[in-house]
Design a protein that fits this description.
Blueprint: H1 2-16, E1 27-32, E2 39-43, E3 49-55, E4 57-58, E5 61-62, E6 66-70, E7 74-78, E8 84-88, E9 90-91, E10 94-95, E11 103-107, E12 110-114, E13 120-126, E14 128-129, E15 137-147, H2 153-160, E16 170-182, E17 188-189, E18 191-192, E19 199-203, E20 209-213, E21 218-221
Antiparallel strand pairs: 1-2, 1-5, 2-3, 4-6, 6-7, 7-8, 8-11, 9-10, 11-12, 12-13, 14-15, 15-16, 16-17, 18-19, 19-20, 20-21
């Protein structure tokens, strides 16, 4: 639990980073211990309780979204109406890290990207995606986690009956039907070069050729 709470604190710092002044529309976390446990809820700036304290932990503020630890569903993103708006991808037993303004979320067994306001920027349609680095993420459709012992997560759980016994180190492999790269606009590429002088080349499956900047934006289209 200590590790999980530490990871949530990392995400909380991301949610509040750069907010020099809390907007009047934001809610502030408060702690209630009357149940014998430290539970988190949210109040308006004038002290009115908007969301009763029921979460095991949560972000310091709730503007567009707060990440909270729900006893039933694990880590979830909620809005000021206390509605669940997304479920972060789980990484290292905690919510996914923010990379270049986006983090991964899970929906119907697929993975997409969202921002800290809870807006789903790239819809969940991939079986696996890497965090963004220099404006590019690698994606896979199909496949599964294959661990160092050569077994899949499903095999390990079937044999042991316990997900906690899954090895820590794995790669995405198996029956991958499609793989490639994408930028923050959801544009997909079949091939990209290494970043050089803050630029890289990229090609789509239909052989269109582009030049990207360090943010993954298309800055030039090459003629065939």
């Amino acid at each position: 639990m200590k590790t999980i709470l530490t990871l949530l604190l990392v995400f909380i710092s991301m949610l509040t980073f750069g907010q020099k002044k809390v907007s009047k529309d934001c809610l502030i976390a408060y702690i209630d211990t009357t149940s014998g446990k430290e539970l988190t809820g949210y109040k308006s700036l004038n002290g009115e309780i908007i969301i009763k304290a029921k979460y095991l932990n949560g972000s310091d503020t709730l503007c567009g979204m707060a990440i909270v630890l729900n006893s039933e569903f694990g880590f979830v993103g909620i809005n000021r109406n206390d509605s669940i708006i997304l479920k972060p991808y789980t990484y290292d037993n905690g919510p996914d890290y923010l990379e270049e303004g986006l983090f991964r979320f899970v929906e119907n067994g697929k993975i997409g990207f969202a921002n800290l306001e809870g807006q789903k920027i790239i819809r969940a349609k991939y079986d696996f995606v890497t965090p963004f680095s220099d404006g590019i993420s690698e994606y896979s459709i199909g496949g599964e986690e294959i661990y160092e012992n050569g077994k899949s997560k499903k095999q390990i759980i079937q044999e042991s009956g316990y997900e906690g016994l899954v090895d820590k180190h794995w790669t995405w492999s198996g029956d991958v039907r499609e793989s490639g790269y994408l930028n923050k606009y959801g544009q997909q590429f079949e091939k990209v070069t290494e970043l050089k002088n803050n630029k890289r080349e990229a090609w789509t499956k239909d052989k269109k050729h582009f030049l990207l900047n360090q943010k993954g934006q298309i800055i030039k289209t090459y003629n065939k």
